[in-house]
Specification:
CATH class of the largest domain: Alpha Beta
Strand order of the largest sheet: 4-3-7-6-5
Helix content: 40-55%
Strand content: 15-25%
Number of strands: 14
Structural class: alpha+beta
Number of helices: 9
Largest sheet: 5 strands, antiparallel
CATH topology of the largest domain: Beta-Lactamase
CATH architecture of the largest domain: 2-Layer Sandwich
Radius of gyration: 49 Å
């Protein structure tokens, strides 16, 4: 309201001031013109000479005013002063005033601004020829004083009306926002984890869409907090199992006296630590993927070259396990992505295929008119159709697969979503195994 009222008041004051100044100037200029015409009526020509016959009373009227200084001058056709003061503000511009023309202009006399009326009186039908210039001027004290009084007379009532309107608006807005103030008080009194919907009772209709969006945000936040809590609980449970196994095997190794039993316990400890290390590594990768959502920097990447490099890195590990890795490509497969995250996604897909995929893994990269497809297929037991939608959940493992952290496909899906890609599970070639397809959108030019 302050930002609205201040320009409004300045605008009203300017309109009132310049309007009053204009009309008051018009009034005073007409009075000045009448005095000039009255002085012109007293001009006479006798014996080819111009005279000004001004009675004593009229001369007093021309010279006397309670507030302003009045002055006049009459010039004959030769430019000689025949009446009044010799020092008068000159006519504006370079062109001379036309016969019979009245001109009112601003000037300066003795360092003070004045207003002057000039009339060119033609001497037709007389024994003299030419024109007589008659000038009547006055200072501006009374004009300015009246303009100020007129401005105050207009602005003061407007200011009072504006303040009254502002008070009424403030009262009305305050009454209208009382439900919002009560809502603010209720929200400020809530606990940090109180994510219940905001009550809509008594809220103004204009605020309903805003409150609906807040409630939707609170619902999504509650779901995210609940999912995070479940994730932490599952992670703690997954870590607790290998830790408990390590402790039990260590205690068994300490109390046994047989070297073979101790060796067996140490092997179990090594297996449990490896499982726990894999789980911690997966958790760190998942946390890094979640953090990359706000700092992701996409670049144009050659999908064929990237998949080929990852396949080469995993080839020795696959050969050591008796698994063959093949690679096929067709078309241009440029993608917009983060190279490190895409490598991590492929690494998880190849790792899953090595764990559960049988003896062959085929990596395929194809360029399509809508983007590019990456396919990782194996000839293992695959995943039954009804269970495919559940395997993307964190820590979900099939009953037949007890090893692994249950986070590989979760990481794959998160990375794909960051790149605008879609992950789908299909049956492998010849109806055998599992094929994981990642469909990337068309790369920007």
């Amino acid at each position: 309201m302050l930002w609205m009222l201040l320009p409004l008041f300045i605008m009203l004051w300017a309109i009132a001031y310049f309007s009053s100044q204009y009309f008051i100037n018009e009034t005073f200029d007409r009075s000045l013109a009448r005095r000039t015409y009255a002085l012109a009526d007293r001009v006479e020509v006798l014996n080819h000479k111009v005279y000004v016959d001004i009675p004593v009373a009229a001369r007093a009227v021309l010279a006397f005013d309670q507030e302003d200084l009045l002055f006049h001058r009459v010039l004959d056709p030769q430019g000689r002063v025949i009446e009044g003061e010799s020092d008068m503000p000159p006519l504006p511009g370079k062109s001379a005033i036309k016969p019979g023309q009245l001109l009112v202009y601003d000037g300066v006399k003795e360092g003070e601004k004045v207003r002057v009326a000039a009339f060119s009186l033609p001497l037709r039908g007389t024994s003299a020829n030419g024109t007589v210039l008659i000038q009547v001027g006055e200072t501006l004290s009374r004009r300015l004083a009246m303009a100020d009084r007129a401005t105050l007379a207009i602005v003061v009532p407007m200011l009072l009306m504006t303040l009254a309107a502002a008070a009424a608006i403030a009262y009305g807005v305050g009454r209208g926002l009382e439900p919002l103030s009560r809502l603010r008080d209720r929200l400020s009194a809530r606990e940090a984890l109180d994510l219940r919907p905001v009550p809509l009772e008594g809220a103004p209709a204009e605020l309903r869409p805003f409150l609906d969006e807040i409630n939707s945000l609170l619902q999504r936040l509650a779901e995210a907090v609940e999912a995070q809590s479940r994730f932490v609980a599952n992670a703690a449970h997954q870590l607790r199992t290998p830790i408990a196994g390590i402790r039990a095997q260590a205690e068994a190794a300490l109390i046994t006296a047989h070297p073979d039993d101790a060796q067996h316990a140490l092997a179990r400890i090594a297996k449990s630590t490896q499982t726990m290390g894999d789980l911690v590594q997966k958790l760190l990768i998942l946390a890094r993927v979640d953090a990359a959502e706000n700092t992701l920097c996409l670049q144009r990447l050659d999908g064929v070259e990237l998949v080929r490099e990852v396949a080469r890195e995993w080839a020795p590990d696959a050969l050591s396990k008796g698994v063959e890795i093949g690679f096929e490509t067709s078309g241009d497969a440029v993608v917009m992505g983060d190279a490190q995250l895409l490598r991590e996604m492929l690494a998880n897909l190849i790792d899953n295929a090595l764990r559960y995929g049988g003896t062959q893994i085929m990596l395929t990269v194809r360029g399509t008119g809508q983007g590019s497809d990456w396919l990782v297929a194996d000839n293992g037991p695959g995943i039954p159709g009804p269970q495919r939608s559940a395997v993307f959940a964190p820590f979900h493992r099939l009953p037949s697969r007890v090893d692994g952290a249950g986070l590989g496909l979760t990481i794959v899906q998160r990375i794909a979503q960051l790149h605008g890609a879609v992950v789908s599970l299909e049956t492998g070639g010849g109806g055998i195994g599992l094929a994981v397809r990642v469909c990337f959108p068309l790369a920007d030019a």
